[in-house]
């Protein structure tokens, strides 16, 4: 980046964060005027395209180019493990990121459900689809938590529709002798969060989710260890627990505390001591999310027992804000948070969720905090979050929406098997393991099926995007990218008239 560009970018970010919020918002709206309600509806619709199992009929399954798949999942272990979501563009069910997706969708419904309007029912349906699968994984066998279906090393050598899968649907689990505190902690968080979503609309289901969450969390803390150590190449390098499992234990306890208000979980959190201070939030590292979740009591209720989490949440924000003296976050020239080259938008959407949520808490109590000599207001966090959402929806140097099917210009060649291969209706013949590479994967043609609402990995650090199916780090969508953007989209959809 040239000195001139850097100076311009620094000025742009300073204006974005520092100007009166109403002026800043007008500028951003004029730049692209995103339709947040449309984007919200599409971001949730995406999950129908990721469904595994026996699909519903009619209006409950609007992604009509998808059909039933994975109907024998679990058979190797003599259990029913049908359902759930394929994590991204492949045909594997990885429970670690799926559970995180479920937790984030649930958090979004809890924080922003009143702003979702008619999309709240669709969000609940998306949560139920994965939560019911996670229940099966937790309840199928005593002292065993199933954590995945499908051999990723074999699956990743294939390019076939999920409806045609002829690869091994190997079943993976953790147990007392092969522990997985990380995947168990995240599963407990997902079930606890989902239990609150259904508390007033399906109390029986809610109670089952919560009672199962408690048992899974007990399993996580009683038999400690990382699931990547237990399962090796079945989950690594795909979804290794790089950050260890302490963050999932904190995250799981935080969600169970919110769901139950049981002092056991508060005492457990205290026993865990101080956690790391990351400048990232993702399916792997949950510390920042736990801090924001726990800070809610400190900010909204002035509960001094949670002040340390408020301080850690604010330290995280200071590491994200571009004009903070302790910022450790890189931005592209176009204003996008840039953390890592592989699927960067997963970090953008997750961090943006924390920005809007902490801003919401701050706004309710007119709370401010300091990053060095910089006074941070709720509108500063909101403006930065809005810039990220607007960038994803097309307010960027390429004027490209990184949500498929949203806006006039979006990725057409996403790295996704079902989207890139003809549907059963148009091509009823089976496409075998390697049958999809030619002529489909290597084709320069747009994908025949539009995976509406899918948010892809996103642009590179120079705001460039090649729209290349083979470039999975930029062109592959994932459930956990979408799971995190639903909340911010609902927040902005409910904040302006459309």
Give an overview of the whole structure.
There is one protein chain. Helix 7 (181-197) runs parallel beside helix 10. The chain has 498 residues and is mainly α. The chain has a domain at 7-49 and 322-412 and 451-498: Glycosyltransferase (Alpha/alpha barrel), CATH 1.50.10.10. The protein is globular and about 65 Å long. Helices cover 50% and strands 4% of the residues.
Features:
19 helices, globular, Glycosyltransferase, 498 residues, 3-stranded antiparallel β-sheet, mainly alpha, two-stranded antiparallel ribbon, 7 strands
Write the layout of secondary structure elements.
Layout: H1 3-18, H2 21-32, H3 36-49, E1 93-94, H4 95-116, H5 119-139, E2 145-149, H6 152-155, E3 171-174, H7 181-197, H8 203-222, H9 227-231, H10 246-260, H11 263-272, H12 287-301, H13 307-320, E4 330-331, E5 337-338, H14 345-365, E6 369-371, E7 374-376, H15 378-392, H16 417-420, H17 437-441, H18 472-475, H19 479-493
Antiparallel strand pairs: 1-2, 2-3, 4-5, 6-7
Helix pairs in contact: 2-15, 3-5, 3-19, 4-5, 4-7, 4-19, 5-7, 7-8, 7-10, 8-10, 10-11, 10-12, 12-13, 12-14, 14-15, 14-19
Strand order of the largest sheet: 1-2-3
Count helical runs: 19
Oligomer: single chain
Q: Which spans have pLDDT < 50 for at least 5 consecutive residues?
A: 1-31
Q: Percent of residues in helical segments?
A: 40-55%
Task: Please tell me what the overall shape is.
Answer: globular
Query: What's the order of the H and E elements?
Result: HHHEHHEHEHHHHHHHEEHEEHHHHH
- Can you tell me the CATH class of the domain at 7-49 and 322-412 and 451-498? Mainly Alpha
Strand content: under 5%
Look at the helices and sheets and give the structural class: mainly alpha
The CATH architecture of the domain at 7-49 and 322-412 and 451-498 is Alpha/alpha barrel
The number of strands is 7
| Rg | 22 Å
Major beta sheet summary:
3 strands, antiparallel
Mean pLDDT: 93
CATH-defined topology of the domain at 7-49 and 322-412 and 451-498: Glycosyltransferase
Span of the ends, CA to CA: 37 Å
Keywords: Carbohydrate metabolism, Cellulose degradation, Glycosidase, Hydrolase, Polysaccharide degradation, Signal
Catalytic activity: Endohydrolysis of (1->4)-beta-D-glucosidic linkages in cellulose, lichenin and cereal beta-D-glucans
InterPro entries: 6-hairpin_glycosidase_sf, 6hp_glycosidase-like_sf, Glyco_hydro_9, Glyco_hydro_9_His_AS
Family: Belongs to the glycosyl hydrolase 9 (cellulase E) family.
């Amino acid at each position: 980046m040239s000195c001139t560009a850097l100076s311009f970018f620094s000025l742009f970010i300073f204006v974005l964060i520092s100007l009166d919020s109403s002026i800043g918002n007008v500028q951003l709206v004029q730049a692209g005027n995103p339709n947040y309600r449309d984007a919200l509806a599409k971001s949730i619709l995406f999950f129908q395209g990721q469904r595994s199992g026996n699909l519903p009929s009619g209006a409950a399954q609007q992604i009509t180019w998808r059909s039933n798949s994975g109907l024998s999942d679990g058979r190797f272990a003599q259990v029913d493990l049908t359902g759930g979501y394929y994590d991204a563009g492949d045909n594997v069910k990885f429970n670690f990121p799926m559970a995180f997706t479920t937790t984030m969708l649930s958090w979004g419904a809890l924080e922003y459900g009143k702003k979702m309007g008619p999309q709240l029912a669709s969000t609940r349906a998306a949560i139920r689809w994965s939560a019911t699968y996670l229940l099966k994984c937790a309840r199928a066998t005593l002292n065993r938590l199933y954590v995945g279906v499908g051999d990723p090393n074999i699956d990743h050598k294939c390019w076939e529709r999920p409806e045609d899968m002829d690869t091994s649907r190997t079943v993976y689990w953790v147990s007392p002798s092969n522990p997985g505190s990380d995947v168990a902690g995240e599963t407990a968080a997902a079930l606890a969060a989902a239990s609150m979503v259904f508390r007033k609309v399906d109390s029986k289901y809610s109670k089952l989710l919560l009672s199962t969450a408690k048992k899974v969390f007990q399993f996580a803390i009683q038999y400690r260890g990382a699931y990547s150590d237990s399962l090796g190449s079945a989950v690594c390098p795909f979804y290794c627990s790089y950050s260890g499992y302490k963050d999932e234990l904190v995250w799981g306890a935080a969600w169970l505390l919110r769901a139950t208000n049981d002092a056991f979980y508060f005492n457990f959190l205290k026993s865990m001591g101080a956690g790391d201070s990351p400048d990232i939030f993702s399916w792997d590292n949950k510390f920042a999310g736990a801090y924001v979740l726990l800070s809610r009591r400190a900010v909204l209720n002035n509960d001094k027992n949670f002040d340390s989490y408020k301080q850690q949440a604010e330290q995280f924000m200071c590491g994200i804000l571009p004009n903070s003296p302790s910022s450790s976050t890189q931005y592209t020239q176009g204003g996008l948070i840039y953390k890592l080259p592989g699927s960067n938008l997963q970090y953008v959407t997750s961090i943006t969720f924390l920005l809007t949520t902490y801003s919401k808490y701050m706004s309710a109590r007119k709370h401010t905090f300091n990053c060095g000599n910089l006074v941070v207001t709720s509108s500063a966090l909101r403006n930065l979050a809005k810039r990220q959402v607007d960038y994803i929806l097309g307010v960027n140097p390429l004027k490209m929406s990184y949500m498929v099917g949203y806006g006039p210009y979006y990725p057409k060649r996403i790295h996704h098997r079902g989207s890139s291969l003809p549907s059963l209706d148009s091509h009823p013949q089976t496409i075998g393991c390697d049958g999809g590479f030619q002529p489909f994967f290597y084709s320069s043609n747009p994908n025949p099926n539009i995976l509406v609402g899918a948010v892809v990995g996103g642009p590179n650090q120079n705001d460039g995007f090649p729209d290349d199916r083979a470039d999975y780090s930029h062109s592959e969508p994932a459930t956990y990218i979408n799971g995190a953007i639903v909340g911010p989209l609902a927040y902005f959809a409910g904040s302006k008239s459309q």
